[in-house]
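The records we work with from here on pair a chain with its fold. Each token is a code from a learned vocabulary of local backbone shapes. A record is reproduced here so that you can trace the correspondence yourselves:

_____
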Amino acid sequence: MIVYCKESISIYKSIIKDFSLNYSFSDISSLHDKLNYLTISYHFSKIHKTYRELVYSGQFNLISDKFLNVKIIYYYLFYEANDNYLNDLFYKEIYHVLNKYSQVTMHEKSSSSNEASLETIDKALALFTQNKLKEPASKLELINAVKAKLILQENFIDLVNKTLIDIGSLIRKIDTYLGYTPDMVNN
């Protein structure tokens, strides 16, 4: 997840840099491939059901340490904010723009040698896309989507790192509350 985020940030920056040279997308090499790569999105596993089960089963009420209760609630709220970035911003505001100005191409891993036609770009459609991207409204739409996703991706790396730190801290607090020592826990 982090590797993809860093690679995508590099691609976003290269698109912005190449665009700023001539204020055009026509000279950006492999624009379709780059935009396709940027439509990939990673997110955390859905855990809201876990929290509901914890509450509905009454297990959450068994934790008498109110500070620990607050930490658990905070973690689930923080996680939900991570998930909202994907659903509320990326898919609703950015994904369709990246998809609109690119042709879907298959990566080598996902296609066999007899499916080479899946990896090709239709030249007429590529020309159509390039002509569309000469329009100021289209340029604005795509460069704004690229810049917005760059900002989101940089923030997402921070969220991932913070989540990893928070969950590690929360697990240690729960282990301590339950009376587990480090040698009893498989970290």
Summary: Residues 29 and 165 are 39 Å apart (CA to CA). The chain has a mean pLDDT of 81. The chain has one domain: 2-184. Helices lie at 2-22, 31-38, 48-56, 66-100, 123-132, 136-178.
